[in-house]
Amino acid sequence: MPKGNAKSDTKPRGRMTAYAYFVQICREEHKKKHPEENVVFAEFSKKCAERWKTMSDKEKKRFHEMADVDKKRYEAEMKDYTPSENEKGKRGKKRKQMKDPNAPKRPLPAFFIFSNDERSKVKQANPCYTAGDTSKELGRMWSEADPAVKSKYQELADEDKARYDREMIEYKKTGKVSQPEPPVVKTHPVLNEEEEEEEEDDQ
């Protein structure tokens, strides 16, 4: 007979956010109404995000309650979880979690802001560069940049971090940001992917 407090080596399923529950239920309802339709996830996800933004706190309440229950389930299961040797050695790709479109835009580090300003110049001067080559060149330019230049971008990064902190306080209280402040800098499309990876690591 196994002991009641035996540890499990099966990793618990990751916890779901309120928004993830909302999308899941929307998909289930859509399948019931249109069982033969092939859903294009990117388009469907975009519609869900637009709908979520217009929902009231009362309408979102049940999804937040579902997320709270799942969070408790996850935390309880993690207490009984002991990674096996195989699990410890695995470095598989993390499953990307759905992000709440109401969440504040994450702040950019000084180097990313610098890259926003210089990327187009590097591409124009080196049209044959791949994305990797461009990133390497930007890294070299940043490492050799004058301290005064780095200081300017660090100030912008600090401003963006302060904006993010202010919005996160409201987001944690209400689940949304009533009046998002404009980002200190415009995010470059390439940087969005890197930013998403950072956000996944925080969750």
TrEMBL record:
Residues 74-114, 173-203 are annotated as: Disordered. Residues 12-82, 104-172 bind DNA. It is found in: Chromosome; Nucleus. GO terms for cellular component: chromosome; nucleus. Its main location: nucleus. Residues 192-203 have a biased composition (Acidic residues). InterPro entries: HMG_box_dom, HMG_box_dom_sf, HMG_boxA_CS, HMGB. Residues 74-89 have a biased composition (Basic and acidic residues). SUPFAM superfamilies: HMG-box. GO terms for molecular function: DNA binding. Residues 12-82, 104-172 form the HMG box domain. It comes from the Eukaryota. It holds the Pfam family HMG_box. Keywords: Chromosome, DNA-binding, Nucleus, Repeat. Belongs to the HMGB family. This is Putative nucleosome-binding factor spn pob3 subunit. It comes from Triatoma infestans.
